[in-house]
Amino acid sequence: MSSADVDAVLSAFTSRFGRDPEGVWAAPGRVNLIGEHTDYNDGFVMPFALAQAVTVAAEARADGRWSVTSLNQDETHQFGPDDLVPGMDGWHAYVAGVVWALREAGRKVRGADLVLSSDVPVGAGLSSSAALECATLAVLADLSELEIEPLERAKLARRCENEFVGAPTGLMDQAASTLCTVGHALFFDCRSFETEQVHLALDEAGLELLVLDTRTPHALVDSEYAARRRSCEEAARLLGVRALRDVTDLDAALAALPDPEMQRRVRHVVTEDVRVLEAAEMLRQDRITDLAPLLDASHVSMRDDFEITVPTVDLAVETAKAAGALGARMTGGGFGGCIIALVAAGTADQVAAAVATTFDAAGYGAPSHFLGRPSAGAGRIR
Ligand code: ADP
Ligand code: MG
Hints:
alpha+beta, Ribosomal Protein S5, domain 2, four-stranded antiparallel beta sheet, 22% strand, binds adenosine-5'-diphosphate
């Protein structure tokens, strides 16, 4: 969250309603350090919350209706209980769906006015959608005086995304936006939902984590994502396991699968789970530099086995490495979006500049970048 966003939502709220809001809440976007497409295979992920967040000024209202203004969209929408129909169109479905999920869970939600602003890049694989849901949930829980455990909040926000908006995602994004803490990555078991805060003190290790948005327009994401999920589910069925998380002998599993494409998909998921477990162990020992080869191996696996990278992303990773990054990988669901690169402190800008130069020479649009700083999860900030 930026202080500019806090000022913006406060002044927009005041000029719209003629008084101060009851409070200000924020929920972050996230970057996934490692563990891609493992969540829906009951496996392991390790995201951390970014400083970038959705910031919301809000106040309860008496008539049991809701209004939401997004300063990014320059739009206001109003809705009441009768409008809460899954499949609703428009960005405000992410807000209405949280009201819907709370009510479906038997919670009494007070009406409210929300004014929000966000500095989470949209559609870049940094979960601006989960940030919007988790911020809305934090607002409504407080205004309605609901006691809801953090993991339960994440599940309600996911329910909004899966059942109301209609995007079939795992729990990682909402868990990250809700549960992450400053200075840590979240080691998350997507089957048991067990969590562990693992220390990620980049500055103490003399490191920075560059997040570079390739700004590649996403194409075919939904259909390719669905195809990967289907392939993993089919492989688990053929192997007689509940989910690919349960594959303990990779060679035996590969030998049991006839289709080379399916073999590659399984190899990615199984080796990626192992990499997340190794990464968690390294962070427990404060060996952050040792993450670098795991990031590299994760990228190769996504590129060659899971086949979810695209030329811009591969070029960004290669260039970052050539410019001195210790390790680099695409982060997020794939087919565009961001890469992360672990770099020596003070070198992120020069690594990003090298990628920008290569992109220019290749005729690609200019990328953007920032430093990923492990930040706090959703909550009230004023
Ligand atoms: P990602 O979560 O990777 O950024 P998604 O496609 O899942 O991408 O979610 C992006 C959608 O979330 C946007 O198209 C919009 O509907 C909604 N959204 C995110 N941030 C905002 C915002 N600040 N204002 C309004 N809608 C937003
Ligand atoms: Mg999203």
